[in-house]
């Protein structure tokens, strides 16, 4: 099942994508794509209703509809660094023995076509196309990766945007460079785990102004989704709806030769096979951003 949230920023309603360009509104039976809903096994609970509404002709076109991030504001967003062999090599570092973990503010979520807003003074804002993993139940100290796999609600497309000057030049605490508003474009949908039984060979790509920047595959991950969920559960409680950004392949602006970063007016496009695509324009910081996802 492909879960979505559609409508104005801060007032999104839950929906289910059917086919490639239509949706079923489920706001009369689902409050939001939040922790409580994700813990309820949404694919199983909604499947009969979706089939009934499709048969009744209730599917509507997505054209012209704003798509928001597919999950409501999570309890936390966790980020994994140096998780692709080619990206680690591009930074001149070896793959770590254990996952490198940082975090970013949960209110950085934005939709897959919303403007990407540069923070004031930005001069090294970078792109990172990533597979996003969404937790499906409350877990702590999981026993093995099989149990961790069962705790995953599904997968989504993420751009883990990072302002490198704030990340590296302000005390070395990565969260500072990852937490500006709009710095986690997410979606267009959350594919429940049953839709993507094998996440070990998904192609990732990202272009800036039509020029190819990143090309990679999840097969090059050092630590896969189940291993990351298992690992993280030994340090913290993971809640339904928590988002894990699993790392990026080579081709970031920081590791390009010469380095290159985002500027106002740039157009960013990215995708990941069955997880859809994103496209948005980069803008200067000005007026405060619209209210974020609930």
TrEMBL record:
Coiled coil: none annotated. InterPro entries: FAH, Fumarylacetoacetase-like_C, Fumarylacetoacetase_C_sf. Pfam families: FAA_hydrolase. Residues 77-282 form the Fumarylacetoacetase-like C-terminal domain. GO terms for biological process: small molecule metabolic process. Signal peptide: none annotated. Keywords: Metal-binding. Gene3D superfamilies: Fumarylacetoacetase-like, C-terminal domain. GO terms for molecular function: catalytic activity; metal ion binding. Belongs to the FAH family. PANTHER family: FUMARYLACETOACETATE HYDROLASE DOMAIN-CONTAINING PROTEIN 2A (PTHR42796:SF4), FUMARYLACETOACETATE HYDROLASE DOMAIN-CONTAINING PROTEIN 2A-RELATED (PTHR42796). This is 2-keto-4-pentenoate hydratase/2-oxohepta-3-ene-1,7-dioic acid hydratase (Catechol pathway).
């Amino acid at each position: 099942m492909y879960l979505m949230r559609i409508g104005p920023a801060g007032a999104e309603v839950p929906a289910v994508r059917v086919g490639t360009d239509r949706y079923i509104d489920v706001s009369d039976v689902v409050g939001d794509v939040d922790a409580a809903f994700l813990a309820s096994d949404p694919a199983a609970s909604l499947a009969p209703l979706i089939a009934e509404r499709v048969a009744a002709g209730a599917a509507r076109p997505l054209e012209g509809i704003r798509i928001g991030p597919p999950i409501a504001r999570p309890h936390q967003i966790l980020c994994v660094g140096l998780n692709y062999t080619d990206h680690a090599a591009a930074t001149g570092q070896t793959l770590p023995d254990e996952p490198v973990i940082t975090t970013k503010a949960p209110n950085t979520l934005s939709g897959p076509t919303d403007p990407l807003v540069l923070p004031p003074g930005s001069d090294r804002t970078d792109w990172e196309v990533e597979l996003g993993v969404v937790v499906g139940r409350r877990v702590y100290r999981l026993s093995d990766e099989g149990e961790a796999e069962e705790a995953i609600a599904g997968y989504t497309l993420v751009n883990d945007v990072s302002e490198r000057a704030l990340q590296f030049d302000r005390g070395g605490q990565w969260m500072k460079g990852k937490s500006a508003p709009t710095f986690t474009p997410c979606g267009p949908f959350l594919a429940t785990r049953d839709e993507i039984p094998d996440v070990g060979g998904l192609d990732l790509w990202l272009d800036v102004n039509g020029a190819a920047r990143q090309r990679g595959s999840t097969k090059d991950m050092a630590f896969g989704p189940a291993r990351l969920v298992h690992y993280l559960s030994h340090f913290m409680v993971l809640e339904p709806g928590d988002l894990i950004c699993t790392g990026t392949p080579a081709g970031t602006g920081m590791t390009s030769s010469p380095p290159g970063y985002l500027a106002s007016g740039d157009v960013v496009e990215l995708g990941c096979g069955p997880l859809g695509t994103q496209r948005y324009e980069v803008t200067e910081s000005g007026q405060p951003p619209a209210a974020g996802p609930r």
